[in-house]
Every structure is written in structure tokens, then in C-alpha cells.
């Protein structure tokens, strides 16, 4: 809008005479704030043909309401001014007493349908009102300001009295003229208007006659009021609300007229202006419905809804595609949160406070704006089914993409195509295969997925695999241009594992990089929960804290309070189409009876409708009631009692149907209802015939293919009002019927821990739709779970027959196995525990021995997967104590692996060795001679096989017993390494021999790697070490990350350049995340960054990678986090920049001294060694060789230092340099011997890889020549070492060679040449990013470094700020 657009002034009479109110759009000032610049056009366009009459009427009504509203406000303002001056207002107002000010403007597309992010209070009952009509060619009015003209009739009355009622009467006539667009058609003739000051009876008349006369007058006036209302309604020209307002203003009914002041008039007109869909745009002039049902809209949540929609608006603005933003010319500042943010909103409130309705309303609004909105609801007492509910959320998302793929809508089909490409690019074939097993609809999107391309993740890794897969899936879809809203309702009933899954997924999505790295993710996650059920110990509490602490999730909490009295009035207004003045007293009564509890309000109002206390009055043309009668009604004191009272009025058949449905939960598939209709537990005629009446009463709702209780409180109270015995019988009958349909008895008899029932569809023979899913809604697998849940709900207390108990224990075993097969371990644990409960009286008896063992194994297996080592021990111990050793092998395996997972390495070793010896796998007692003898004997055996013979021995499949033994050995090997146990080589040799005797398989690879490791460590036989590494490479499982991590991180680093190893380990980290093996993934990540550091990678880039990695490690692996922090301290010392790595410890560990104390307290040798070695490296680079020696001696005293690792190479290299320097400094002859020994070692190592060792060897030779005073050879070797390091890309070692060369030249007084080499060292250190080291060198040797050289050197290896490794 241009500031210089002229203001047009015309009389109201002229405005109406122009007939423009049906053609233009009038806007209030706050509505025009979003309008753009626009040129002038005609203010009052001439009438044009072809306009849709209905559209014109709607426009006329709204414009008339706005003009009338400002007119009323201007009269009030004038009256107040005159009152202040002690003057009165002449009540006889006319149309030509007023003028209108107009200003030209034009429309602008609203941002997401919101006007200035404003949500009107009452509008939310029937939808967000006030949308601008985008089809208008122009907006004719910027603002309307009704003001009295100069000649307006304002006089002092004879009596100095202000007759407000008379003024309202004449204002009503003016408003009639406005709504009739200046029509001259007369209103119904009215009797003379009497001043309120005129007496209605004479003093001489008696009281009785006076009362009678007055009653007659009131009756006549009331009749006239209804007559006028009917006359206006009869024209068919005006909405009912307008007719009611005019009749109440114009009729002479002082006692029954509800218009008592101008405030009432203004409030009515504001309602019409703000909520035209409710009060102006009725489909019919009158509003009458025989099925009035209150509570269908949203009331009293203006502030909360505005907050939620503002968040959605911010997501749209801050996740905009950069190109699109640029093209729109939008100046948008980065998100204040920084990085990629996921918005999570958690809505809480009491049960029945309207949380679900509130979020549903927002979801519907966003759906209309193009968002993809998907919702799931968790179930009471079915926490074990939480994972499947979350699965259904993503199933809905992918199914929507599949539907778009088949759509005729070009935009939708293109979006689906791009989503398919994005998903295919984000996930490799193995990951897609794993994802398709969790979300079958993925195969409908990408048909060529091979579901057998991947092996299921190990049980204890499946959780993290799912986090990885879902994060990748959602991230790929979010990279496109549509926004997604996920809603998870009733989180108080979600199990801890699934809540953790949701939380981890949101954090992981927030860490995903895209675009410039500054956009918000196009995701709004909304969680809903009952706050009264969330205690400090509830898993949701800790997860909310975790999300708050995460830098990648912006958490907003919205708490819904009780409704206010005004909110109750808004609800009644919206549903009855009545103004506030007519409903306010009813709202007051209802509010007092319900205390504003949302569901109580709705149920009470609807009960009043059902018993006709609130009913439609044909005489009044509206719903009517008796407030006094309602106020004196005896009502129940809680919503629960009211629900029960209302339902007690149902006929027996619908009530019985409702009871059966309540036993199945809040939401029940219609196909299941139809199936149950054939069961003997239902009355004749079936439940399906009862559904319509229950839906009509608002008890049930039809939602797609399901029947849903209108509120879970209804389901809860129906269920709880069934007698306990009645509930148990219903559960048992339903369970037995469905179990028969699923053939559970036959399945449970065949079941063992090695296999389960097939997931067969209970279908009508219809074919698959190509999406990987059957058209049948209820599968046999679903029936297995439902039937077993019903039996468990009945409980073992209700079932006393031993045979029945054994039967149902078998059902639970079957259901538990099926749950475990789909990696739903929370459900698997639930079913196995319930199965054991059915056998409590006869645990491990003769007839139940095998079933009891299998149930305990199932429970232990599920607990192992969930990481509960203590509980695994309990169930495993029960098996071990009651069965033979051979039959206890599964329990032994789970017990040992759970101990390892819990970090109890000493116990793992002890228990593992005991089991291996019982298995006749010889592992001698640890001693140096035993190690030597075992290595010698294993070497003799392995020498009989060539590499090809060993790899050809690989078996494609091995029996379960062998696999368990190998898993036990793997666990013991890991524990031995972590403990630096002398049993490590002994167990390794035993494992290699076992594999060669019983068949090589993928699980043998780890033992082969460790065996190669010891061939190098104990014998320095690098050739044999490399051979066993190559064998392991050929037999290892490509989906298993542990062996590659061990292979590259502890064996092949002798032969492959450090940076290349770092890259391989990054790939292993990714593979570990895909497989859900986050432990191995984090070790691989930690090792990869360490290799990159020793490989000379730029320190600034490396520091950024560490900062990004610390958060991941802190989440997944605290041990790796501590190692990484120590590595960061080395880098910080070299760069001179504090990266604050201890922040990742969240205050638990503040500095390295606390970290060292923690390692000492826990007797963690490797942790202590890492810190001492860090101090050695830092002291070396600082040139403090005495300090360096102190720390290397301390580190070498620990048992873990004897285990070869990447640090050994550099520890030996640096210590050799220190030894020669100390010898030349006169610290003793012994240092020359130390240096020569380390030089000899480097000469041996260089045969493995010149890229790694050549420059190191030459530099040690240079130091040796310098120590022997061979100046010429020393100079040549220093120069050759620097050149060789440069050729191999080792800029840090090039700098070190130059620095040591400079020191040597200084020692022989070649000062100028020394300065030259120091300057070269400075350049190398700057290129490496070691700014502090370079600065110290400059200071120590007084170097002159030009600023340009400084800058160019330091920037040579700099990369983009977002360029990191991970």
C-alpha cells in the first residue's frame, strides 16, 4: 500500500447507494498490514454482470458487518465524549448522519493462510476464519473509520437525559439499511417508540390492573419481536444472526430484549466480522439440526494454537530452499539455534483436556496447507506393542508416497518419484532390504528391493540399526520440498525402548546436514501425554530432558489448562450459531458444574441435548433452554460418572457390543469386528449392526478401516465397569476364538527357539497389491498377538487348569518368538514373561521342562537385546541350574555376551573360559610359557594350510551350536583385549584350531585377525600377520563391522598408510551404524580420527570433525568419548585453540585430571595409558624431552601398553628422536643404545610400508649420524627425510625433519642455514594447522615470517567450514 494513496471520504448514504458492498472487499487496518504496493483504480466500480450471486451475498454480509461494527464503535465514542462534556446524544440517528473514510489497496498472498500469524479466539471452533479471497482483482478498502459529520444532530435533551435504548433502536434501522445494501423496503410496521421515561400506567389504576396491563404489553412486544424476526427471515435475504440482532435492537421489548447496551451490539457484530463462516455464511438462513453434538470444534485454545502454528510457520520460513528464497527476494536471517534443527512440541494436560482434539485441529489446518500429517496413538496396558505402533507411523508415511506414485496428479507423482530417488540414494541395497522388513510399503515404492539382501542385525544392535534406517529414510524425504508433521498420542503408555527410539531418531535427524547447514528440518514432531501419569521415574521424563539438552532439537512444551467460562461460551456459540449474550448464562452454569474440564463440559452439554433440556425452539428460531432448570439439575461430580450414567441408557445389545470392543482397546480394525461377529461371545445379530447407533451417540467414531472410541476415557470407563469376572471371561472367550482362527495350538506345538510360525495372511485369497503387503487387513501374525494378549489379559489367576495353562504358555512362546523375529524385543520379553507366569506352579517340571527352558531363553534373549545384563543373568541362571550343560548353551552364550556388553570384562573372561573348557576347547592357564607353546603349536598346524585352502574351508552355513561357541569366543576375545589379559593369545589360538577342525565361517575372522596380530607382536613375523589379515578379509561378513574395525585398526595399519586406514575405518563406522552396532561404529570413528591425525591431516579440519563426533560418542559410547577427548587435547595443544571437548561430558568430567582419576578408580588401564601417552606426545611437540620421558615411562608400566596399536609406531619414533637428542645433550651413553634399538626396529618395520616408515627411518638415521658427528651424512639424511615426508603427504613429519635439521645446524654454528630450515619448518606447521607449535618455533628462534607467507601457509590446507569427515 502506498503511503501517498488518497483517503476517500463519502457519506454512508452514498456508500450504500453505490451498491458496492457486494463487489469490494473491506479490510480492517490490522488485516491490511500484509498488502503490497498497488496502483490506483476506481473506488466504486460500476455494477458488472456475471458475478456469482452466492459469492456476492457472502461478500456483502461480511462488508456490512464490518461497516456496522465501526459505525457502532463511532457512536459509542461520540456518546462517551458528550458524556464527558455533560451533554446528551440525540437518539434519532439517520443514515446520512455518518460518513466513511476509505483508502485503496490490493491483495497479497497470505503466508500459509495466516493473517499476520493471528488466530482469532472464536474462529477456531469452525476453522481458521478471515482467509482473504485470492480471486479478488483488487482490495477496495484499507480501513473504515466511521465518524460523525460536522452537521450531525447532537443536542442537549430537555431533561438532560440520554436515552440509550432509543439510540440502539435507530442504530438497528441503520444496520438494516447497511445489510440491505440501501434497500428502501420498509421494515415491519412498529408501534410508536415510547421513551423509557414515559409511564406505562396511570397512578389511579390499581396494582393488579397495572400488572395485567404490563403483562399484556410485554406479550405484545415479545410477539412483535418474533414477528419482526420472522419477517426478516422470511425474506431469505439475511443470515439468522443478523435477523436476530436487528429484531432484538428494533423491537420495543424493554424486558425481554437481550440487547441491553451498545456493548452487546458491538460484540454481536465482532462475532460476525471475525467468524463469518459461523454467523454469516450459513447454508440456510435458519440453523436447526436434530443431531446437535457439541464439542466437535476446538474451544479455548487460542494462545496454544497460535504458538503451535507459529512454530510451523517458522519451520516453513527457515527450511525454505535457498534458491526459492532468493527468487522471492526474502531476506532471512539464520536460525538462532544454528545448525539443522528439528522442532518437537510436547502437548500435555489432564485426561479429557482436549489434547488430541487440539493437535488434530492443527494437523487438519496444516494438511490444508500441503503438509503431510501422520498420527499414531499408543494403547493403555499394551506398552509392549509400542514398537509396532511406531512402525505403523512410518508405514503410513511410505504408503502415502506409494499412493502418490499411482496418482493422476502430476505434482504428487513427481514428488513420489523424487522421494524414491532420494531414499535410494540415501540407503544402500542392504539397508533398503533391512528397512523393507520393518516397513513393507517401501517395496511398493522401490519394487526391486531384495528383502534377503541383508541379514538381520544382531539382537543387541537392532535398536540402533532402526534409529539409523529411520533417520536416513525421513532425512531423505525431508530433503525435498514438502513438510511433515508426526503426531504421537498418549506417550504415557509408550514403553521406554520405543520412547528412546523416537528421541534418538529426532536427534539423529537434527544432526543431518543439508544445504548450507543452517536450515530447519521440514519436520514437526508433536507428542501428547497426560501429565498426571508422568512421574520423575517415567522414561518420558528422561527423554524430554535429553531432547532439551540436544543442540539439534528445539523443544517446546504446551500445557493445556482447563477451559474458562468464556471458552465454554465460545463452544456453545460455535455449535448453536448464537451470540454470546444469549449463551453466557448457560455457559456460566456449565462451567460451575464442570470446573472447565473439557470433556466433562462436552459430555454434560450433550447429555442436556439428549434429554431435550437444550432443544430447538421453532418459535424463537434457535436452540433454547432454561438456565434455572439446568442450574438446579442434580448432576454427577465427575466425567467418569457422567460417561457411565449416559452409557447405562443404552439397550442391552449395543451395550454388550461396547463391552466387547472395550476389551480390544481404543481402536479396533473393522475387519476384526466382522470376524468377532461370528464368535459365540457376542449376542445374536453381531456387533456390526450396533455400530451405527453408537456412532450416532458419539460413543464411537469410524476412522478409515477402524472403529475408534470417541475418547479413551470412554473406553476406560466402559471396561472398568465390567465386573472382574466378566472381563476375564470376555478376554478368554475372545482369545480362544481368535487363537483357533490363527491355529495357535498347532503352531505352539511345533515351536522351538530355533524357528517360529510363518507369517501367513488370514485373507480371502486376494492378491498382493505390489507393495509387499497383503490386501487383507488382519494377518495371521496380528491374530496371534491379539489372541495371546486377550489370554494374558484374562491372566493365569483366572485359568486354573494345568493343561490350559501349559497351552497358553505355548501361545506366549509362539508370540514371543514372532516378536523377536521382527526385532520387537520389548514385546518378546512381555510374551515370554507371561508364558513363564502361566507355568509358575510347575517350573521345569517333567511335562513343562522344554517349554519352560524355551520361555526363559526367549526372555533372556530379549533382555540381552534390550541391554539389561542384570535380568539376563537371572533368567540365564534359572536355565543353567535346571538343565544339562549342553541344553544350557544358549543361556551360557547370552550370559557371557551380556556381561561383555555391560563392561564386566573380568567376569566375561572367567565365565567364558569355564564354558570353553566344558566344551573340551583347551585353553591352558595363562603363563609366558603357555603362550609360547600355544603359538608354536598353532603355527605348526596353520603352516599345513595355504591361504586358499583356509578360505575354501569357509562354510556358507553352520549349525547353531558352533555359531554360539564362536560368539562366546568373540566375546571373550574382546574382553581379554579390554582387560589386556594374558589369556588373549591363548583363547585366540584355541579358536583358530577349533575353526580349522570344525569348519571356517564368518565368525572365525575375528580370531584370525587377532592371531595375525600376535604373529606380529610376539614373533615380529609381519609376513604371517599380513597373511592372516588377508584371509580374514576374504571370509568376513560385509555386514559385520566388528571384524573390519579390528582388522584395520589393529593389524593392517602396519601395511596401509594412515590416512587410507582412516578412510576405511570411517566406512566401517557407517557400516556399524547401518547394522545397529553403535559400539563398534564409535570405536571405528574414534580410531579413524586418530589415524588421520597421525597421518598428518589438517588440524583445523580434524578439530571440527572431532567436535562433531564428540556428541555422537557421548550418546552411544562413553569409553570412546573419553579416548576422543584425550586426542582432542593433543590437537588443542598444537593449534593453541581450546575446543572445549569436556563439554560433551555434560559436567560429569571437567578436565583431564578428573578423567585420569576416573580411570584409576575403575582400574581402566587403557584409559590411563591413553592419558599418559597424550602427555608424552604433547611434551614431545613442546620440546620438553625430560617431561616426555617421564610420561612414556609411566605409560609403559601399564599392562595395556604391551598391546600393539597405532600409538606404538609414533611412540617408538618419537622416543628414538628423544634418545639421540638426550645422548647429544650429555644425559648418558645408555640413550645412544636406546636410540639404536629403536632405529633397528624402524629398519624392520619399513619393509611393511615405505609410505608409513621411510621418512621416519631416515630421520632417525639423521639423528644417529648427528650423534656420531657425521655432519655430511646427517645433513643429507635430514634433507632426504623432509623430502620423503613431503612426497608421502606427511606435512607434520616434514616440519619435524626441518626443525630437527635446524637444531642440528644451530648446534654446529651454521646459524643462517639453521634459520632457513626453521622457516621451512614453520611453513609446514602452519600448513598442518599447528599454529601454536609454529608460533613457539618463531619465538624460540626469533624468526622473521612475513605476514603474507604466514597467511598463505596457514590457509593452504584450509577447507570450507562445513567440510568435515563425518
Binned strand content = 5-15%
Distance between the termini: 50 Å
Give the helix tally: 57
Q: Going across the biggest sheet, name each strand in turn.
A: 5-6-7-4-8
Number of strands: 13
State mean pLDDT (0 to 100 scale).
Answer: 81
What is the 3D shape? flat
State the low-pLDDT regions, or none: 33-51, 107-142, 148-161, 189-208, 210-221, 321-339, 752-776, 1351-1366
Which descriptors apply to this entry?
single chain; 1366 residues; mainly alpha; five-stranded parallel sheet; flat
Produce the secondary structure layout.
Blueprint (H helix, E strand, L loop, with lengths): L6 E5 H6 L35 H32 L13 E6 L43 E2 L15 H16 L27 H29 L4 H11 L11 H13 L1 H4 L22 H17 L3 H7 L12 E9 L5 H14 L3 E6 L8 H20 L4 H17 L2 H10 L3 H4 L16 H17 L5 E6 L6 H15 L9 E11 L8 H11 L3 E7 L5 H12 L3 H15 L3 H13 L4 E3 L4 E3 L2 H6 L6 H9 L4 H11 L4 E3 H7 L14 H6 L3 E4 L2 E4 L2 H9 L3 H18 L2 H7 L29 H15 L7 H20 L3 H14 L10 H17 L3 H14 L6 H13 L3 H14 L9 H15 L4 H6 L7 H20 L3 H16 L6 H15 L2 H14 L6 H9 L7 H18 L2 H17 L4 H18 L1 H18 L16 H10 L3 H17 L3 H12 L9 H19 L5 H16 L4 H18 L3 H17 L3 H17 L3 H18 L2 H10 L6 H9 L11
Parallel strand pairs: 4-7, 4-8, 5-6, 6-7
Antiparallel strand pairs: 1-2, 2-3, 9-10, 11-13, 12-13
Description:
The chain is mainly alpha-helical. The protein is built from 57 helices and 13 strands. The chain has a 5-stranded parallel sheet, sandwiched between helices. It starts with 6 loop residues before the first strand and ends in an 11-residue tail after the last helix. Mean pLDDT is 81; it is low at 33-51, 107-142, 148-161, 189-208, 210-221, 321-339, 752-776 and 1351-1366.
Amino acid at each position: 500500500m502506498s503511503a501517498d494513496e488518497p483517503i476517500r471520504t463519502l457519506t454512508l448514504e452514498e456508500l450504500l447507494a453505490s451498491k458496492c458492498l457486494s463487489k469490494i472487499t473491506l479490510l480492517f487496518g490490522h488485516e491490511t498490514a500484509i498488502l503490497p504496493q498497488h496502483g490506483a483504480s476506481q473506488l466504486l466500480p460500476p455494477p458488472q454482470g456475471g458475478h456469482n450471486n452466492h459469492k456476492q451475498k457472502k461478500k456483502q454480509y461480511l462488508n456490512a458487518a464490518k461497516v456496522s461494527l465501526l459505525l457502532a464503535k463511532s457512536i459509542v465514542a461520540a456518546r462517551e465524549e458528550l458524556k464527558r462534556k455533560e451533554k446528551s446524544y440525540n437518539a434519532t440517528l439517520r443514515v446520512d448522519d455518518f460518513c466513511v473514510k476509505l483508502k485503496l489497496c490490493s491483495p497479497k498472498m497470505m503466508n500459509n493462510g495466516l493473517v499476520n500469524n493471528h488466530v482469532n479466539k472464536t474462529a477456531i471452533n469452525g476453522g481458521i476464519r478471515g482467509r482473504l479471497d485470492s480471486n479478488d482483482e483488487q482490495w477496495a478498502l484499507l480501513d473504515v473509520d466511521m465518524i460523525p459529520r460536522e452537521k450531525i444532530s447532537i443536542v442537549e435533551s430537555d431533561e438532560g437525559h440520554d436515552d440509550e435504548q432509543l439510540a440502539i433502536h435507530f442504530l438497528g434501522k441503520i444496520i438494516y439499511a447497511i445489510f440491505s445494501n440501501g434497500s428502501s423496503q420498509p421494515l415491519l410496521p412498529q408501534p410508536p417508540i415510547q421513551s423509557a421515561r414515559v409511564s406505562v400506567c396511570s397512578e389511579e389504576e390499581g396494582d393488579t390492573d397495572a400488572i395485567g396491563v404490563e403483562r399484556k404489553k410485554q406479550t405484545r412486544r415479545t410477539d412483535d419481536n418474533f414477528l419482526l424476526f420472522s419477517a426478516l427471515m422470511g425474506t431469505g435475504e439475511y443470515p439468522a444472526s443478523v435477523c436476530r440482532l436487528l429484531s432484538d435492537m428494533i423491537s420495543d421489548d424493554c424486558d425481554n430484549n437481550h440487547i441491553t447496551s451498545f456493548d452487546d451490539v458491538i460484540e454481536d457484530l465482532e462475532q460476525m466480522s471475525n467468524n463469518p463462516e459461523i454467523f454469516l455464511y450459513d447454508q440456510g438462513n435458519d440453523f436447526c439440526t436434530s443431531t446437535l453434538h457439541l464439542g466437535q470444534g476446538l474451544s479455548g485454545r487460542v494462545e496454544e494454537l497460535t504458538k503451535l502454528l507459529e512454530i510451523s510457520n517458522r519451520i516453513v520460513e527457515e527450511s525454505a530452499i535457498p534458491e526459492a528464497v532468493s527468487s522471492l527476494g526474502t531476506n532471512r536471517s539464520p536460525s538462532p539455534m544454528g545448525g539443522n534443527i528439528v522442532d518437537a512440541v510436547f502437548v500435555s494436560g489432564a485426561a479429557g483436556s482436549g489434547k488430541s482434539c487440539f493437535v488434530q485441529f492443527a494437523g487438519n489446518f496444516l494438511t490444508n496447507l500441503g503438509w503431510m500429517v501422520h498420527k499414531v496413538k499408543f494403547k493403555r496396558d499394551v506398552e509392549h506393542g509400542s514398537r509396532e505402533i511406531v512402525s505403523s507411523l512410518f508405514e503410513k508415511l511410505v504408503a502415502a508416497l506409494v499412493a502418490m506414485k499411482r496418482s493422476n496428479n502430476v505434482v504428487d507423482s513427481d514428488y513420489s518419484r523424487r522421494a524414491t530417488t532420494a531414499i535410494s540414494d540415501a540407503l544402500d541395497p542392504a539397508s533398503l532390504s533391512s528397512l523393507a522388513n520393518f516397513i513393507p510399503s517401501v517395496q511398493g515404492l522401490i519394487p526391486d528391493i531384495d528383502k534377503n539382501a541383508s541379514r538381520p542385525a544382531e539382537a543387541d544392535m537392532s535398536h540402533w540399526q532402526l534409529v539409523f534406517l529411520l533417520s536416513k529414510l525421513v532425512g531423505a524425504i525431508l530433503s525435498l520440498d514438502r513438510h511433515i508433521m508426526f503426531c504421537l498420542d498418549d506417550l504415557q503408555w509408550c514403553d521406554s525402548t520405543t520412547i528412546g527410539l523416537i528421541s534418538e531418531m529426532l536427534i539423529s535427524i537434527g544432526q543431518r546436514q543439508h544445504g548450507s547447514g543452517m536450515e530447519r528440518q521440514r519436520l514437526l514432531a508433536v507428542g501428547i501425554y497426560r501429565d498426571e501419569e508422568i512421574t520423575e521415574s517415567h522414561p518420558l521424563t528422561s527423554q524430554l530432558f535429553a531432547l532439551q539438552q540436544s543442540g539439534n532439537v528445539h523443544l517446546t512444551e504446551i500445557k493445556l489448562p482447563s477451559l474458562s467460562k468464556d471458552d465454554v461460551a465460545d463452544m456453545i456459540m460455535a455449535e448453536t450459531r448464537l451470540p454470546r449474550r444469549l449463551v453466557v448464562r448457560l455457559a456460566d452454569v456449565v462451567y460451575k458444574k464442570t470446573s472447565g474440564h473439557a470433556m466433562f463440559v462436552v459430555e454434560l452439554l450433550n447429555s442436556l441435548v439428549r434429554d431435550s433440556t437444550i432443544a430447538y425452539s421453532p418459535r424463537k428460531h434457535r436452540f433454547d433452554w432454561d438456565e434455572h432448570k439446568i442450574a438446579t439439575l442434580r448432576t454427577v461430580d465427575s466425567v467418569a460418572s457422567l460417561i457411565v450414567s449416559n452409557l447405562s441408557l443404552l439397550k442391552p445389545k449395543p451395550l454388550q457390543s461396547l463391552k466387547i470392543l472395550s476389551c480390544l482397546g481404543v481402536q479396533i480394525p473393522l475387519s476384526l469386528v466382522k470376524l468377532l461377529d461370528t464368535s459365540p461371545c457376542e449376542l445374536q445379530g453381531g456387533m456390526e449392526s450396533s455400530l451405527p447407533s453408537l456412532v450416532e451417540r458419539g460413543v464411537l467414531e469410524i476412522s478409515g478401516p477402524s472403529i475408534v472410541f470417541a475418547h479413551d476415557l470412554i473406553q476406560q470407563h466402559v471396561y472398568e465397569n465390567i465386573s472382574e469376572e466378566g472381563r476375564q471371561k470376555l478376554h478368554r472367550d475372545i482369545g480362544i476364538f481368535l487363537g483357533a482362527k490363527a491355529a495357535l495350538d498347532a503352531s505352539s506345538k511345533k515351536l522351538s527357539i530355533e524357528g517360529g510360525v510363518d507369517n501367513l495372511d488370514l485373507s480371502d485369497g486376494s492378491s498382493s497389491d505390489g507393495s509387499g503387503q497383503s490386501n487383507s487387513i488382519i494377518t495371521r501374525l496380528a491374530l496371534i498377538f491379539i489372541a495371546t494378549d486377550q489370554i494374558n489379559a484374562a491372566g493365569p489367576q483366572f485359568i486354573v487348569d494345568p493343561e490350559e495353562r501349559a497351552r497358553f504358555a505355548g501361545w506366549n512362546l509362539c508370540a514371543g518368538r514372532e516378536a523377536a523375529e521382527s526385532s520387537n524385543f520389548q514385546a518378546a520379553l512381555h510374551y515370554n514373561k507371561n508364558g513363564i507366569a502361566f507355568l509358575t506352579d510347575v517350573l521345569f517340571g517333567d511335562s513343562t521342562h522344554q517349554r519352560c527352558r524355551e520361555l526363559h531363553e526367549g526372555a533372556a534373549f530379549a533382555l540381552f537385546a534390550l541391554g539389561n545384563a542384570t535380568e539376563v543373568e537371572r533368567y540365564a541362571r534359572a536355565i543353567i541350574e535346571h538343565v544339562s550343560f549342553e541344553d544350557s548353551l544358549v543361556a551360557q552364550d547370552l550370559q557371557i555376551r551380556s556381561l561383555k556388553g555391560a563392561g564386566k570384562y573380568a567376569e566375561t573372561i572367567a565365565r567364558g573360559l569355564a564354558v570353553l573348557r566344558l566344551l573340551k576347547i583347551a585353553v591352558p592357564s595363562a603363563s609366558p610359557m603357555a603362550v609360547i607353546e600355544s603359538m608354536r603349536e598353532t603355527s605348526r598346524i596353520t603352516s599345513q594350510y595355504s591361504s586358499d585352502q583356509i578360505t575354501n574351508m569357509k562354510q556358507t552355513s553352520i549349525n547353531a551350536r558352533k555359531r554360539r561357541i564362536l560368539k562366546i569366543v568373540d566375546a571373550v576375545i574382546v574382553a581379554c583385549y579390554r582387560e589386556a589379559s594374558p589369556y588373549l593369545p591363548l583363547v585366540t589360538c584355541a579358536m583358530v584350531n577349533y575353526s580349522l577342525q570344525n569348519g571356517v565361517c564368518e565368525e572365525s575372522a575375528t580370531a584370525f585377525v587377532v592371531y595375525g596380530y600376535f604373529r606380529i607382536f610376539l614373533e615380529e613375523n609381519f609376513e604371517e600377520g599380513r597373511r592372516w589379515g588377508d584371509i580374514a578379509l576374504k571370509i568376513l561378513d560385509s555386514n559385520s563391522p566388528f571384524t573390519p574395525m579390528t582388522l584395520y585398526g589393529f593389524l593392517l595399519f602396519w601395511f596401509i598408510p594412515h590416512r587410507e586406514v582412516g578412510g576405511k575405518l570411517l566406512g566401517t563406522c557407517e557400516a556399524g551404524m547401518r547394522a545397529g552396532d553403535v559400539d563398534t561404529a564409535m570405536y571405528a570413528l574414534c580410531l579413524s580420527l586418530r589415524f588421520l591425525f597421525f597421518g598428518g591431516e589438517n588440524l583445523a579440519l580434524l578439530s571440527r570433525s572431532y567436535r562433531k563426533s564428540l556428541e555422537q560418542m557421548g550418546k552411544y559410547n562413553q569409553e570412546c568419548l573419553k579416548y576422543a577427548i584425550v586426542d582432542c587435547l593433543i590437537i588443542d595443544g598444537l593449534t593453541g585453540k581450546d575446543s572445549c571437548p569436556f563439554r560433551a561430558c555434560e559436567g560429569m568430567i571437567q578436565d583431564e585430571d578428573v578423567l585420569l582419576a576416573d580411570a584409576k578408580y575403575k582400574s581402566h588401564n587403557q584409559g590411563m595409558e591413553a592419558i599418559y601417552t597424550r602427555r608424552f606426545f604433547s611434551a614431545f611437540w613442546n620440546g620438553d624431552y625430560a617431561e616426555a620421558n617421564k610420561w612414556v615411562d609411566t605409560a609403559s608400566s601399564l599392562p595395556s601398553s604391551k598391546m600393539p596399536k597405532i600409538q606404538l609406531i609414533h611412540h617408538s619414533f618419537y622416543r628414538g628422536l628423544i634418545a639421540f637428542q638426550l645422548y647429544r645433550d650429555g644425559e648418558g651413553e645408555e640413550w645412544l643404545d636406546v636410540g639404536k634399538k629403536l632405529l633397528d626396529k624402524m629398519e624392520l618395520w619399513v619393509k611393511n610400508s615405505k609410505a608409513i616408515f621411510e621418512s621416519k627411518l631416515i630421520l632417525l638415521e639423521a639423528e644417529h649420524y648427528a650423534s656420531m658427528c657425521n655432519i655430511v651424512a646427517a645433513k643429507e639424511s635430514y634433507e632426504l627425510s623432509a623430502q620423503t615426508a613431503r612426497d608421502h603427504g606427511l606435512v607434520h613429519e616434514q616440519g619435524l625433519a626441518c626443525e630437527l635439521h635446524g637444531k642440528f645446524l644451530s648446534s654446529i654454528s651454521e646459524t643462517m642455514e639453521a634459520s632457513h630450515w626453521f622457516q621451512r619448518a614453520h611453513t609446514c606447521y602452519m600448513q598442518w594447522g599447528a599454529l601454536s607449535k609454529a608460533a613457539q618455533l618463531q619465538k624460540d628462534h626469533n624468526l622473521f615470517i612475513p605476514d603474507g607467507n604466514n597467511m598463505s601457509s596457514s590457509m593452504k590446507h584450509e577447507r570450507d567450514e562445513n567440510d568435515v569427515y563425518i
